[in-house]
Structures are given as structure tokens and as C-alpha cells.
Specification:
Blueprint lengths: L6 H10 L57 E6 L13 E7 L4 E6 L5 E7 L2 E6 L6 E6 L4 E4 L5 E4 L6 E7 L7 E2 H6 L7 H8 L3 H14 L1
Antiparallel strand pairs: 1-2, 2-9, 3-8, 3-10, 4-7, 4-9, 5-6, 5-8
Helix pairs in contact: 3-4
């Protein structure tokens, strides 16, 4: 049997490694995403530094309000690696959130990012659900208030005021991803069996079929 001391470094690595959740330290100044590359990797291939330009690090337009003329009364303008390639490997992105009165960003989660939000105008009712006992944490935010949504937890933002609201969110990934709960469950492609959903939600299949029709059309 190998000496026990040989296992100590491995054990230490297994214990400590979860603490390092971000990308490893960069080995170069930047890795601008080459969105035209056909090479498939976990993330984006680096563009040749010799053809990188200042515009790879630039995005314009967050001063403009998003279109909230929709069923939800909200709009999200994301600035992530797909439209700001200089963000690649940097572990950060941004989004502008616009709300009409009564506007909602419905329950969703980001599989790869924590979100921190600051209200610029108006009032928002926000919250998230913890994985322990489904505990709900909510807060009414006013201009200048800040709230954080932990990574992977279902959360929402709702404008309960009588005027438009604007917020800015920072996310801890260049590609945070977003999963809207209702869309994912009732708008899956191909659809989740209505037998499964009827039992999971304790509803009759006619109601499930109606819900699936709403979200299939929305998608």
C-alpha cells in the first residue's frame, strides 16, 4: 500500500478546490472572444491579439431605455461576451433592466453567476428563494438601493410603483446564462409529458395542456 502521505496533497486539493469557483488566473492580458471560430471549447476561442481592436472592448447603448411594450412590461439589455467580446475569460457582465409600471422580470435563475442589482430610478420589489426549506427573501428597493441574488437561486424583480423603473445588474460571469422557470417547465422543446407535470403541480392535465400552449406560443 502506498504511504499515507502520498494521499495528503490529493485530499487537500479536493477539500480546497471548491473555494476556487472562478476562472483560473489569466496567462495573458486578454482573450477577446472569436465569435466566428468553428472550434468548440468551454467558452470562446481567443481572437488573434494582432487583429484585436479597441471596439472589442466597447459597447454603446445602455443609455437607451429598452422596449417594455410586451406582456411582462419589462426589458433586459444584456452586455455579455456575445456582444462585448473583450469580456471573454474576465468573469463579469452587465445588464440594464427597464420596467413599465407593473412590469416584471419573472422568476428565473443564472446557472453560472451571482447577480448584484442597483436601482437607478423607481421602486422594485425583488426576492429570491433559498434551496433550504424554500425560504423566500424579499425587499422593496428604492433609488440607490442594492440587492444581491446568489448564484443559481430563483429570483425575480417587479415594479410595484406607478412610474417606470430602471436598474443595473452586474453578474459574475461573462456568460451567466438565464433560465426562466415557467418557460423552461411549460415551454420545453419537446414538451415535458403532461402526466409528469400534472403530478408534479397537482393539476389536471387539461390545465397543464393549456399552460403548455401559452408558453409554447410565447417561445
Amino acid at each position: 500500500m502506498a504511504p499515507s502521505f502520498l494521499f495528503l496533497p490529493l485530499f487537500a486539493l479536493l477539500v480546497i478546490s471548491p473555494a476556487f469557483g472562478s476562472d483560473p488566473s489569466q496567462l495573458q492580458d486578454f482573450c477577446v472572444a472569436d465569435n466566428s471560430s468553428q472550434v468548440f471549447v468551454n467558452g470562446f476561442v481567443c481572437k488573434n491579439p494582432n487583429v484585436v481592436t479597441v471596439n472589442d472592448f466597447f459597447f454603446s447603448g445602455l443609455d437607451k431605455a429598452g422596449n417594455t411594450n410586451n406582456k411582462l412590461g419589462s426589458s433586459v439589455t444584456a452586455v455579455a461576451v456575445n456582444n462585448l467580446p473583450g469580456l471573454n475569460t474576465l468573469g463579469i457582465s452587465l445588464a440594464r433592466l427597464d420596467f413599465a409600471p407593473g412590469g416584471l422580470v419573472p422568476p428565473h435563475y443564472h446557472p453560472r453567476a451571482t447577480e448584484i442589482l442597483v436601482v437607478l430610478e423607481g421602486t422594485l420589489y425583488v426576492g429570491f428563494v433559498a434551496s433550504t426549506n424554500n425560504q423566500l427573501f424579499t425587499k422593496v428597493l428604492n433609488k440607490g438601493d442594492v440587492f444581491v441574488f446568489p448564484q443559481g437561486l430563483i429570483h425575480f424583480q417587479y415594479n410595484q410603483g406607478w412610474t417606470n423603473a430602471v436598474a443595473l445588474s452586474g453578474l459574475s460571469s461573462q456568460n451567466p446564462g438565464v433560465v426562466f422557470v415557467a418557460n423552461a417547465v411549460f415551454g420545453a422543446n419537446p414538451p415535458i409529458s403532461d402526466d409528469v407535470l400534472a403530478k408534479a403541480f397537482q393539476l389536471d392535465k387539461k390545465t397543464i395542456d393549456w399552460l403548455q400552449a401559452q408558453f409554447t406560443a410565447a417561445n
